[in-house]
TrEMBL record:
It is an enzyme of class 3 (hydrolase). This is AMP deaminase. One of its GO terms (cellular component) is cytosol. One of its GO terms (molecular function) is metal ion binding. The keyword Hydrolase applies.
Length: 256
């Protein structure tokens, strides 16, 4: 809330997003929602977790959008937006400096990799290094939403193997040759592990046996079960960790 108010006061005329192809300033974004700085309250932002948040995934997801507006999430909480994640980096740096000041508090913050395409890692690392979102009191955990079915239905990919390749191939490449992407190499030294996120309350058929399709054959419209996702994340990470260890690099943990 402090950050949004401060930014509205000092950078109201900064262009922050494109709406139907036309540039919009921060002031215009808030005007389009009939809001001024005086209207904003913590309750109105509605991003704090309460009891219901952890039982209902839809409610949990809604908390990502300040005031329930996806446009505000895009402006303030994304690394990949019109301003290349400038505001998000500033918020993180403010949080980090608070942590450093209090000395004995550490935070483990999440960043998302979706497995949508292979350039995601490079973009994320570029953002992290450009804005230097580094702190001794902060470590990064990468969360991977289980969205294969959505990518498949939007014809972004043909099978589950493409999803896995988009996530892990860039990591194997940069482990093999850090100079192939020095930004990603540096960023990974501050990443401690991976998390798998989605709605765990969805009923699914968890049957995994020897006949189950391999990722290259999994071209169904529906999502593979949770156990399938985790098995292939674990399998890829195990090999990656052995490889990184041989190269004298840090390794990752799987913490779904």
């Amino acid at each position: 809330l402090r950050f949004i108010k401060k930014t509205l006061k000092n950078h109201a005329d900064e262009v922050v997003t494109l709406h139907k192809g036309t540039p919009m300033t921060l002031k215009a974004v808030f005007q389009s929602m009939n809001l001024s700085t005086y209207d904003l309250t913590v309750d109105m932002l509605d991003v704090h977790a309460d009891r219901n948040t952890f039982h209902r995934f839809d409610k949990f997801n809604a908390k990502y959008n300040p005031i329930g507006e996806s446009r505000l999430r895009e402006v303030f909480l994304k690394t990949d937006n019109y301003m290349n994640g400038k505001y998000f980096a500033r918020i993180i740096k403010e949080v980090a400096s608070d942590l450093e000041e209090s000395k004995y508090q550490n935070a483990e913050l999440r960043l998302s990799i979706y497995g949508k395409n292979r350039s995601e890692w490079a973009k994320l690392a570029k953002w992290a290094l450009q804005y230097n979102v580094y702190s001794n009191n902060v470590r990064w955990l990468i969360q991977i939403p289980r969205l294969y079915d959505i990518f498949k239905s939007n014809k972004i990919m043909n099978n589950f193997q493409e999803f896995l390749s988009n996530i892990f191939e860039p990591l194997f490449e940069v482990t093999n040759d850090p100079n192939s992407n020095i930004e990603l190499h540096k960023f990974l030294t501050h990443v401690i592990g991976f998390d798998s996120v989605d709605d765990e309350s969805k009923p699914e058929n968890p049957m995994l046996d020897s006949d189950v399709k391999t990722p290259g054959e999994w071209d169904d419209e529906e999502n593979p079960p949770y156990a399938y996702y985790l098995y292939y994340m674990y399998a890829n990470m195990t090999v990656l960790n052995h490889f990184r260890k041989e190269q004298g690099l840090n390794t990752f943990v799987l913490r779904p």
